[in-house]
Design a protein that fits this description.
Elements (H helix, E strand, L loop, with lengths): L3 H4 L8 E3 L9 E4 L8 E4 L1 E3 L7 H15 L3 H8 L5 H10 L3 H21 L1 H6 L7 H15 L23 H11 L6 E5 L5 H10 L2 E6 L2 H20 L7 E5 L6 H9 L2 E4 L6 H10 L8 E4 L22 E8 L11 E8 L2 H9 L5
Parallel strand pairs: 5-6, 5-8, 6-7, 8-9
Antiparallel strand pairs: 1-4, 2-3, 9-11, 10-11
Helix pairs in contact: 2-7, 4-5, 7-9, 7-10, 8-9
């Protein structure tokens, strides 16, 4: 596991400074998560640049998620009390630059969380959940990304314009909406074609609890995806959560045998084809003939041309077995623009072609 202290410390000078400068010592803390797994080591530092990792913000957001999603309502209220709740007291200690008090409060937190876990309080709350809340999922994904991808994110900008090798990310809220629209669940198989650093593959494995596959051709993204997978599994253990099986593959998704086999079993296929060439989109459409009936394909561009109709001359076209529904996503859903846009859900449905054949059959 990559600890916060591994990516943000005074050893990273001049990128980081003391969070509590009036205290002579260099403060390090260990933070208890809602499992019996190891504690995470943090160094109490602040970044010089606003876009660098912020350890104290990470602690704050982690505590808030634990309080809101693991604790019983009666316990959560006491932690969130505006006057004497632990979260508010931590905030005041940070504002007053009181490092000794901050460390003492974290120790109080660790003791309380350990006690609640041993009493079974967290298990009681989690057992009642049918679906993990997006904020909890995002916290784990954000922590994973910050400790693996963010330190070397510049490598993802090395792509070739005008080719299929262009990097862009679908953000968690949008991805969660896709899972809801397609009905993705724990008994399903999910495949992401062009999976980048693996964000969506990991989210599907955690949020839906399903078997999750991804394939990526860009080597720099593949390296980071492998790091993310390793860190993600450690983070899930830290949070006391189980995830579905994860399979990340390298290479051309049209040629990879494992991905080909996974597509035969897939219930939901995601293709961020926003920047794919027409040639690749056509090859993919032919590949969809091998999908099982009812499989849903989610894409940023429709694989079926607008206005397409079945005629006697195009009976062999793969377009004829795809039922397409256009949907909208809103702002802050993708990494390359703040604007909203359209996406498409295509369902493999061979009955469309069968009905045409029956309707147009010559009288016997």
């Amino acid at each position: 596991m990559v600890h916060a202290g591994d990516i943000a410390s005074l050893e990273k000078l001049p990128r980081y400074t003391h969070a509590f400068p009036q205290d002579a010592g260099r403060f390090k803390i260990k933070l208890q998560y809602p499992s019996a797994s190891q504690q995470e080591i943090y160094e109490l530092v602040e970044p010089v640049q606003s876009d660098d990792f912020k350890p104290l913000d990470d602690i704050k957001e982690t505590l808030e998620v634990v309080v809101n999603h693991y604790m019983r309502a009666s316990d959560a209220v006491s932690f969130m009390n505006d006057s004497h709740g632990l979260l508010q007291r931590l905030k005041r200690a940070r504002e007053k630059k009181d490092g000794a008090l901050y460390v003492s409060l974290i120790q109080d937190w660790n003791e309380a969380v350990t006690r609640m876990r041993r009493q079974g309080d967290f298990s009681e709350v989690l057992d009642k959940l049918d679906w993990l809340d997006l904020r909890l999922v995002e916290r784990i994904l954000t922590q994973t990304y910050a400790r693996t991808v963010s330190p070397t994110v510049s490598s993802l900008r090395q792509y070739e314009n005008g080719t299929d090798n262009v990097y862009g990310e679908l953000l968690p809220k949008f991805v969660s909406d896709i899972f809801r629209v397609t009905g993705l669940g724990p008994d399903h198989v999910f495949v992401d074609l062009g999976s980048g650093v693996g964000n969506v593959v990991l989210q599907a494995a955690l949020e839906a609890g399903c078997e999750s596959w991804g394939c990526e051709i860009m080597e720099n993204a593949c390296v980071l995806a492998d790091l993310q997978e390793q860190e993600f599994k450690a983070r899930c253990r830290l949070w006391g959560l189980a995830n579905g099986n994860i399979h990340l593959r390298r290479g051309d998704f049209l040629e990879n045998t494992s991905i080909g086999n996974a597509l035969h079993e897939a219930d939901v296929v995601l293709v961020n084809n926003q920047a794919f060439t027409p040639e690749l989109n056509d090859r993919l459409t032919s590949k969809f003939l091998d999908l099982k009936e009812g499989c849903k394909i989610v894409s940023l561009k429709s694989f079926v041309p607008a206005g397409h109709k079945i005629t006697p001359r195009n009976l062999n076209s793969p377009y004829n077995v795809l039922h397409v529904v256009e949907k909208r996503y809103f702002s802050a859903c993708v990494s390359w623009t703040d604007a909203g846009g359209s996406y498409y859900v295509s369902t493999k449905d061979s009955s469309i072609l069968q009905k045409f054949a029956e309707t147009n059959a010559e009288p016997g």
